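Observation: inputs received (chain + molybdate ion).
Thought: call the complex predictor directly.
Action: predict_structure
Action Input:
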Amino acid sequence: MISVAEALAQVLALARPLPPERVPLAEALGRVLAQPVTARLTQPPFDAAAMDGYWIAAADARPGARLIVTGAAAAGHAHQGALSPGQALRIFTGAPCPAAPGRVIPQEDVTREGDGITLGTLPKSAHIRPRGGDFAEGAEVFPRRPLTPRDLGLMAAMNIAELPVHRRPQVAIIATGDELVMPGERPGPDQILCSNSFLLAGAVTQAGGIARMLPIARDTEASLRAVLGAAEGADLIVTSGGASVGEHDLVGKVAGEMGLARAFWQVAMKPGKPLMAGRLGGAVLLGLPGNPVAAAVCADLFLAPVLKRFQGLEIPASTAKAVLGCDVPPEGPRAHYQRARLSLGGDLPVITPFAQQDSAGLSVLAQADALLIRPPQDGPRSAGEIVDYLPL
Ligand SMILES: Nc1nc2c(c(=O)[nH]1)N[C@H]1C(S)=C(S)[C@@H](COP(=O)(O)OP(=O)(O)OC[C@H]3O[C@@H](n4cnc5c(N)ncnc54)[C@H](O)[C@@H]3O)O[C@H]1N2
Ligand code: MOO
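Observation:
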């Protein structure tokens, strides 16, 4: 059995960033830029008033000065023509300022009578946003993360209407097992609901992929072959179940007959030991264990990172430190990812694993907000010790 770190390295080595495609700016939320984009103009394109008030020439800027208001400039409407000494311009936020040196006095800071104003104490700020104060034409942006609403705002201001982004990975999701029925159906006495496909599709969507849920493959080679065949065109095939050692565990056998180049099977982790990975045709195949929590943990540890890789993202170490909230017993030969809850602590949060750690227990999984990581052969640990965890 290989370690989690080795398995992750091998999974990531199976995938390459997907080629770029161009998408309209309005559809780019969460997408990842494939190359830098550059500002097509300078912002602000002119010295702009930052307050509603009066623009005055630098030479007229002294407390007590009386000036005549001779014209107006508003956002989208510059004032044409020059001002003479002793003249002020009514100006509104966002309006272009005259080219001469000057400043904007907020209207609250002057006394206005008829078309005259009298200046009081001059405010510290000139209340002018200088041309190019935000960014200059040609400025490059290349955030190495899924684009946020803030990125879209910046790129809109840069007049970038279309973006080159990595294609989103197409992910085929295949549940296997005679015991499974879909939510909404009535299970027979020996049956349970297929939960894995929904958990996995959610994980795929959250990580920027496009999930395609295929029909449940039954526990026959013919059924599994047919459903795997229907995954044609996917960048990633994720199966759940049928990965272990029983006679009904057919994924390795059937995928092998279909040409799977297997990278590994079985990882020293708990839950998730029967994980399998390889390449099947043009796709990466992740064969997840059927136990729902095992599938969920494998999704956090392997599926999310490989989806990042497809989108050209770095995969930073995502573990964090916390203080153990209770004593915990020693561990065996597999790294144990324990469902846990975080609470506020001092410098570090406090992490407390749930008493129930069954790899089929979805209720506890849904309440967990972290996975406490117990390394292989970890000794007993006491409350107060510092441990690693994976935020969920
Ligand atoms: N003799 C051994 N038995 C088992 C071993 C082992 O090493 N030796 N490993 C155990 C471990 S660890 C796991 S995890 C499971 C995983 O087995 P499979 O991947 O073959 O999964 P199945 O047997 O098909 O199913 C296991 C369990 O999960 C339920 N399941 C499956 N698919 C779904 C789904 N889509 N939604 C909800 N629940 C699902 C299934 O009904 C079973 O209860 O094997 C151990 N056995
Ligand atoms: O993956 Mo299994 O028990 O390790 O759930």
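Thought: report the result.
Final Answer: Residues 270-273, 289, 291, 294, 359 surround molybdate ion (ligand 2) (CB under 6 Å). Helices lie at 4-13, 149-157, 196-206, 221-229, 251-257, 292-310, 362-367.
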